[in-house]
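Complex 218.
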Amino acid sequence: MVPVGGRGLSHARARQRLAERLAATGIQDERVIAAVMQVPRHLFVDEALATHAYEDSALPIGQGQTISQPYMVARMTEALLAPGCCSTVLEIGTGSGYQTAVLASLVRRVYSIERVASLWQRADARLKALRYRNVRLRYGDGALGWQEYAPFDGILITAAADGVPRRLAAQLAPGGRMVLPLNGAHGQVLVRLTRRTLGFRHEVLESVTFVPMLGGVA
Ligand code: SAH
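Predicted structure with S-adenosyl-L-homocysteine bound:
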């Protein structure tokens, strides 16, 4: 919880303004807006950047990676969560853990995989300190998924791949959705796949910019 008074209050006000801005830029799902209102984004970036935490922009988190722009976190979360969804979500690319925390406020259980050891460790410490008890993190290559807890109702990838990772698609429950940025001939696009009885439904949502999904661990 953010303490009331002093800096805690100014962060709370800034967060309120951010939530209003997201609603004005087209985020419609009130559950998602409420989650953005709850998660203290300033605790997911370095202290030196905390004053920028409630601007709608991506920020560096070290190792050449970024915490996603709040609009994009909200947009992807909204695209993932069908009404009544989801019980379990797998995220690929934990990064700062911010998107993980937003998801954890909305679904029963979140699994998240990060390939950079130092980011994984910091996100783990942060999410534990903030008492997100329904989150499980793993250090590894997210392209392999997390078979032990599959199938997932939702899979969210926060780094851009050249194609849909096949192992991940196979870990999606029937009716489940995967939201991911894909590299294409004309740049990156955000795509939503929905698992059907036979195959997948593909929808292209919008143009995006994400760091690349890489193989192996670092
Ligand atoms: N969701 C994060 C965004 C981080 S940027 C946040 O809100 O902060 C994307 C992250 O994906 C980076 O941390 C990068 O290291 C990670 N990543 C890239 N390829 C990956 C892979 N194959 N498996 C797991 N993580 C990966």
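Helices lie at 6-24, 30-38, 70-80, 98-104, 117-129, 166-169.
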